[in-house]
Every structure is written in structure tokens, then in C-alpha cells.
Amino acid sequence: MFGIGMPELIVILVVALVVLGPKRLPEVARTLGKAMAEFRRQTSEIVEEFQTQTLRDEEPGRPAGRTAKATLPPEPPAEPDKTPSGQA
Could you read off the pLDDT of 7-57 as tens digits, one per residue? Predict the structure, then answer.
């Protein structure tokens, strides 16, 4: 979790206990836990939406949305050469 080992976690908890006190620490920890759960839920929803959109864009036979190339009308046929043959 964030590259924090056991010694660092203990130091953080001791500092939090000193700063917040034993009465407020459980309340703050509960609020922090709820906030982290909500953050993870929102993050997973965003990732899921990106994956869904990517799959939609990769479907064969379906235009890819904003990145799709515009289709150009066909070019008109070239006019035949009007110079008489033999002259350059």
C-alpha cells in the first residue's frame, strides 16, 4: 500500500494518536476508510467506462467516433485529351 512498510505505518499511527487523541482517532479512521472506499469505487467505474468505450471503438464495421476519417466524395472522371492525335 503506497510503499509504506510496517515501521512507517506504526510511526504514522503514533503521530495520529498524539495529534488527534484517543477519542477522535477511531472517528477519523472510519471517515478515512469510507473516503478510500469511495475513491476506489469511483476509480474502478472510470476504468470500466474507458474499457467499455475502447471495446466499442474497436468493434469491426463501426465508425470509431471522433477519430474516424471523413469520407470524401469520389473524384470526377478525368476529361479526355482534346488535342488531335499526332500533335504534341
Answer: 998 898 899 889 988 889 889 889 999 999 999 999 999 999 999 999 888
CB 56 within 8 A of CB 62: yes
Per-residue buried b or exposed e for 7-45, using 16+ beta carbons within 10 Å of the residue's own CB: eeeeeeeeeeeeeeeeeeeeeeeeeeeeeeeeeeeeeee
- Count of alpha carbons within 13 Å of 36, Cβ hemisphere only? 8
Q: Which of 57, 77, 73 has its CA nearest to residue 65?
A: 57
Distance between CA 1 and CA 3 in Å, rounded?
5
Extents of the domains making up the chain: 6-58
